[in-house]
TrEMBL record:
The keyword Translocase does not apply. It is found in: Secreted. It comes from the Eukaryota. InterPro entries: HMCN1-like_VWA, Thr-specific_kinase-like, VWF_A, vWFA_dom_sf. It holds the Pfam family VWA_4. The keyword Signal applies. Transmembrane segments: none annotated. Its main location: secreted. Residues 1-26 have a biased composition (Polar residues). It comes from Planoprotostelium fungivorum. This is VWFA domain-containing protein. Residues 49-250 form the VWFA domain.
Amino acid sequence: MLTPHQTTQKPSGDATSAPQNLSVSTPARHEKSVTHPSTDFNSRMCSIDLCFVLDCSSSMSRSIEKIQPQLQKLCKAMAFEVYNKRMGCEVRYSTVFFRDHDYRSKRLESVDFTSNIDDIIRSFCTIETIGGNDVPEDVLGGLNRALSLSWQGDLKFLIFIGDAPCHGYHSLEDAYPDGDPLGLTPEGVLTSMRKKDIHFLFVKLSSDTNKMVEAFQAIYEDKKKGLELRVLDCRKEASTFVKDKLIREIKGKMTVPISLVYASARSLRQDPNWREYLEYLPQEMQDVVHDVPQEDVPLPPTTVSNLNMLKEGEDKLNFFTFKATTHAPIVPVEVSL
């Protein structure tokens, strides 16, 4: 039950006398944190980490030719949206290129996080698609290398692009059917990734990854943290998917923290004496602006209706209004919740 504010002073009787210290009882306030999807990228300075993990084996040659210019556009678009246009939100980029265990010298290549777009675009332009004697690739090795990078953004995104599953999670020809030859497991890699609060975006280019993706999703999902493996099916539009679909996904994850403050009623207490109710009124607008102590003006009530209007078990708000000329209280207004 909400009750009107009550003063502890006695009526003065002198309209010009200055008030003493004013004590006001207020409802208890509580605060909890909620998030609200932002229509803007962010209202404060922040940082975003984007890591691109690409399968660079021979089977990806044609796809990468189509994807390279789109990745460059994505990086430039993100820089414009969240830094120039949105004033100050830093974006850092990194890349991991993986192949398979049969090509050890270039099995894994990476560029650590940098805010220099030119460095990342240069790495995209130098991709070499080689290796891959069997269908599966070193997916877990690529993800594990990504985890070793210097993640530190307020928002973290890993964008995986590939057309082949990891070893052991498929029904295809596999040189390592029992899984990763170096001992990496999806449970170990994805659990570490989840602990870093990384949003996982999987760009699907082939149905060969279906079984692996299902296994990854079961491990990675964390509803409490809002983490999930999001699959972007781009088998039919590999040349145009990146800029539109990925930016849409990244925007959807951007939230602005706000505090939701609410009041709860105190324990039931005796109604105040409405006939001794004091109202403190500012004399000028400047008094309000500068929070000047106001004069206490006893207000003899002219009409009071139903002094027991706030009963136990009822949730109502009690509002008083005053006539502009006499400042006399008018009938309280009951609002049922």
